[in-house]
């Protein structure tokens, strides 16, 4: 039909890419209608639906509050794991960058020393050939 809904749950943190494509065979400008997309993205744990909560007549207020708190605890735990993964990735990137900077400094120093030695040898050979030394 002209409308559709889908959802997914990811158990791994990271970037997710959603690609939307129309399967219409007509070009939108000539079709006389507009293509409208409504994208509603919900991130994180979602709380209990109020209609479901009201339907549970036998469940008392303490159990509802307890379920709500348990969902919040799970959400906080997942957020902490995600932040730990990001911090670990950042730390590895920083260590690799520091290592690369150290090796770049060593290479530059060796190049400068070799150019200095080459210049001294060239000047000495020049002075010897002109019989100034």
Most strands sheet: none
Q: What Rg, in angstroms, do the CA atoms define?
A: 33 Å
* Alpha carbon gap, first and last residue: 95 Å
Strand residue content: under 5%
Indicate the structural class. Answer: mainly alpha
Q: Helix segment count?
A: 3
* Poorly predicted ranges: none
What percentage of residues falls in helices of 4 or more residues?
55-70%
User: Number of DSSP strands?
Assistant: 0
SSE ordering: HHH
Average pLDDT confidence is 81
Structural shape = elongated
Features:
59% helix; 133 residues; 3 helices; mainly alpha
Entry summary:
With 133 residues, the protein is mostly helical. It is 59% helix and 0% strand.
3D structure, described in words:
The protein has 133 residues and is mainly alpha-helical. 59% of the residues lie in helices and 0% in strands. The chain has helices at residues 28-31, 50-55, 61-129.
What is the fold's blueprint, element by element?
Blueprint lengths: L27 H4 L18 H6 L5 H69 L4
